[in-house]
Amino acid sequence: MGGWMELSKSEAGARDECAVRVEFQRWNCDGSSFPVLGKRILDRSIPTEDLAILLLLAYYVCAQSTAFLVSGLDKTSEPWSMMNFFSFFFCYACQKKLLIFVPTMVTTSEVINSERVFRLVVLKFVLLLAFLFIYTSEGVNIEGQYLLNLKSNMADAFYHLDSWNANDLIPCQWKGVSCTSDGIVVGLHLNSMNLSGIISPRIGGLIHLTVLDLSFNEFSGAIPREISNCSKLEVLYLNNNKFEGEIPHELGSLSSLLKCNLCNNKLCGQLPESIGGLSSLLELVAYSNNITGPLPRSIGKLKNLSVLRMGQNLITGSIPVEVSECRNMKRFGLAQNQLEGEIPKEIGKLPSLTELVLWDNQLSGCIPKEIGNCTQLVTLALYQNNLVGGIPEDIGRLNNLEKLYLYRNSLNGTIPKTIGNLTRATEIDLSENILTGKIPSELCNIKGLYLLHLFQNDLRGFIPPELSGLRNLSKLDLSINSLDGPIPLGFQDMTNLTQLQLFNNMLSGTIPQKLGVYSSLWVVDFSENNLSGQIPRYLCRHSNLILLNLWSNNLTGNIPSEVINCRSLVQLRLGKNSLTGSFPSDLCKLVNLTAIELDENRFSGPIPPEIGQCKALQRLNLPNNFFTHELPRELCNLSLLVILNISSNKIGGSLPQEIFKGRMLQRLDLSQNQFIGTLPDEINLVQLERFVISDNKLSGIIPPIIGKLSHLMELQMGGNEFFGSIPKELGGLSSLQIAMNLSYNDLSGNIPEELGNLALLEFLLLNNNHLTGEIPSSFANLSSLLGLNLSYNDLTGPIPSIPLFRYMTLCSFIGNKDLCGKPLVGCGLPPSLSTSSPRTNTSLSRTVTIIFTAVGGISLVLVTIMVCILRRPIETISPFQDKQLRNTTSGTCMFPKEKVTFQDIVSATNDFDESFVIGRGACGTVYRALLKSGQTIAVKKLASNREGNYTENSFHAEILTLGKIRHRNIVKLYGFSYHQCSNLLLYEYMARGSLGELLHGEFSSTLDWETRYMIALGAAEGLSYLHHGCKPCIIHRDIKSNNILLNENFEAHVGDFGLAKVIDMPQSKSMSAVAGSYGYIAPEYAYTMKITEKCDIYSYGVVLLELLTGRTPVQPLDQGGDLVTWVRTYIKNNSLSSGILDSKLNLEDGIAVDHMIMVLKIALLCTNSSPLDRPAMQEVVLMLVESKQKAASLVSSQVPDFSSKEVDR
């Protein structure tokens, strides 16, 4: 323990004049001969119970020692009493580690004969007693006072710091505080305590601190620069809080710092240049902040740095070459920033590098061949950049590489054969590039390969048969290429294959008939090829098959019974083949089946009544077959049915009235059959959006109840035998947009004025009826109308002189003998083109109708361009002479009220100056432009095409998508400018920026719950319109808070369709491309690689959770890695709302909190792991609206069971 007091005789002196050497040695304390007890008394760090005993002992010893000092030791008296107390005192003190010195074992005679020495010992002991009495007169020591000051600035909702008591003598027993054995505070561990508030500058008084861990709390405010006073600090963990402001440059003086974690905060500003002063630093982690500016070059001074993770920030500039000076670097991560320039070849000087993660930046140039020198690399993630050129041969030198992600760039050339040298690789993803040539057979050398994605390139030739030797391969996607030849027969022998996607190629031959015998297949997608023969019977042998998509091939024969009885099957897509037989009734026994698509085949016979047993069925597509008999009434049992399409068959009889009671049905197409009879008076299809019953033999009047289908967007009733007048109630279809087609019937009477209320309607076809009277003047209100056909009726009077009709041709009005005015002959003049009977020129009139119908099916963006041409000529922009856009010409679609040229945009943005930048995205940069008229717009300048067509495709995708849309919650596209080197999109300007910026930025406090709710509702309505109001349906593919923009009044507008794809079009029916942003991607995407409406709904649910929690979508790995997992895990272990809701909201308002909980339930439904259990966006809108009215019962019954494993995925 302590030191010993030694008494030794001098060899030269007499026995009674012994020389005494008293030697004190301090325990855990150096530099002073003063006993540690004295120091601990001054620091007030002796435990209370020990002090009490010492004081009792000291009282008696003090009295005895005073008498001794006055009169001396009476040699005839017995000294043992006082000596025993001395011994007991020292022994107790030593046992409690309060005294660091203990007297040696000295004989009694030596003590008695050494009176001078004994007096000295007693004198020092009395001095120690004085310190004890000083100790009893004061409170906690100075370090404890610093800690209490810290606590006073914190909010401790769960009372974790209750043990921090000002009446304690020392803080060493306080929760989260660690000390040395002599009472010095060296560690503060307050992680994961749900603490909030700010960090007091007094923390700088803890000068001996070596560990400071405040992670996973709700601390806000700035990081105090006084932390730099803790010069011995080795570990600084401030991650997962809400710290704001810049990183203090004073932190650069912490020369002992080994680990620094600042991730998941709201820190801004640049990484200080002083960071180079952290000479001992091993790990610097600061991802998920708002750090801007370039990386400081001083980072090269951190010679010991092994981990640098700065992803998901706003870092700009290029990667400094000085990084190569950090020779111990192992993990280098700068993903999701705005880095530009090339990857420095000096990266090759980092021999210890194991992870290079630079994805989602704007890096350009080629992949440096020097990267092959980093032979310790395990992960190389360079995807989602602007990299060009070929994949370097030197990549084959990375013998330790396990994960190679180069997808979503513009890489060209062939895949190098040296890729076969990556013998330890488990995942290789080169998809979404412009790679050409053949798939190298050398890939078969990578025996441990688990995932191989080469989809969406321009690969040609055969699929190498050698790939079948990859026995560990589980996920293989070669889709969207130009591969031909057969599917290798050896694929049927691959035992671990679970996902095999070869769609959209030119493959021929038969599908290996034993495919599935040895492998547990989940996903099989061979759609859009030229495959022939029969469907293999063993695809579902292991009962794991979820998706079977063989759409658009040349397959023949029947559906194998083994497939029909596949209990795991969720989607069966066999359309556009030559399959025969009857509808397999056993399909209806598959309880998980949600989609049956047998369209465009040669199936015949009746649709069996067993169809009513498919309780989970949501889509039933059977058009263009030879089905006969009547429609089974059992269809009404399909309560989840959303789409029913049996068009172009030979089904007859009356329509069963039960079919008009499907409350989930959104699309009903019964056209081109032989149905007879009338429509029922009651139609309760409350969710119906598309109602198509044209070209049948239906009769009777049009039920007025149709006017109450508030979600209806398309009404096709032409080619029947309906009679009577057009119900005025149809004018109440406020959502009707695509078309109203009542042509080729026997309708009579006047055209109702109420039809003028259909402000969104684009095509109105009333031709070939017996309508009379004048054209309603209310048609002037049909501001969205693009096509009108009133031909071959009995209309009279002048054609209204309204702008809408100014550009209509005579085809719209021909065949009305008493109708006059432009474009027909003028009123009062002899008719020349209106003498034909309404029914005599049937061939011509039907041709007219077909033309109008065809126009309606064409992409609406072309119609938009056509209208621009008709209304105002497209101006040719003169060449703009600058180094970036010289020698180009462009066309611009004008504003409705003024011309805007490319030169105007250049002037309004000062030649696209950086000071006008308001945002950056994967496809380009957004500028704020103030036009000469005083109007402010947003201009999105897409990146140069360079060597690929990615941005050009993105430009066309945005035009084709945004050009169709008219909705108050969708960002409006004003116009566009098309250049060879630069494409511009002109948007409505959103003054408040993005929801992500406001929610997670410095102004988040301005978003109260009412504002957040209205934003959620507006975004839901916009997304619902994309899903249900556009034909074909539009999937956004990248819903996130940064893509929800807010105007001056905080109204939500869904924007940024850079990733939007139009589904249900021939070229994209089986589109499978990686899309979305990390934290928002639906879980099923991992195994289907398909984007559906349900993926958008999942992403929207994440946005709802952001609005409710205030958290970002990406969470720490130890909390699940994403916001959905964090919320579900938290709810599982706590209550539904406890600790979930954003503390910045007013949580004392009980009504508001109840509303938040209801919206939380909706968010949980949207983020259900099963896409089948997610509601449609229209349902989400309905639930949000009714949640405002406290209709909690709408969602409470559907809240997931949080005790299931689903929350632990």
State which percent range the strand residues make up.
15-25%
User: How many DSSP E strands?
Assistant: 65
Main beta sheet strand tally, sense and closure: 27 strands, mixed
Oligomeric form of this entry? single chain
Question: Would you identify the regions where 5 or more consecutive residues have pLDDT less than 50?
Answer: 1-46, 66-83, 94-112, 132-137, 831-897, 945-951, 1058-1074, 1191-1209
Q: What value does the Rg take, in angstroms? A: 40 Å
Task: Give me the number of helical elements.
Answer: 19
What's the CATH class of the domain at 995-1209, please?
Mainly Alpha
What CATH architecture of the domain at 995-1209 do you see? Orthogonal Bundle
Shape: globular
The CATH fourth-level homologous superfamily of the domain at 995-1209:
Transferase(Phosphotransferase) domain 1
- Tell me the distance between the termini: 54 Å
> Average pLDDT value?
80
- The third-level CATH topology of the domain at 995-1209 is Transferase(Phosphotransferase), domain 1
Overall SS class: alpha/beta
**Estimated helix fraction:** 10-25%
Family: Belongs to the protein kinase superfamily. Ser/Thr protein kinase family.
Keywords: ATP-binding, Cell membrane, Glycoprotein, Kinase, Leucine-rich repeat, Membrane, Nucleotide-binding, Phosphoprotein, Receptor, Repeat, Serine/threonine-protein kinase, Signal, Transferase, Transmembrane, Transmembrane helix
Catalytic activity: L-seryl-[protein] + ATP = O-phospho-L-seryl-[protein] + ADP + H(+); L-threonyl-[protein] + ATP = O-phospho-L-threonyl-[protein] + ADP + H(+)
InterPro entries: Kinase-like_dom_sf, Leu-rich_rpt, Leu-rich_rpt_typical-subtyp, LRR_dom_sf, LRR_N_plant-typ, Plant_RL_S/T_kinase, Prot_kinase_dom, Ser/Thr_kinase_AS
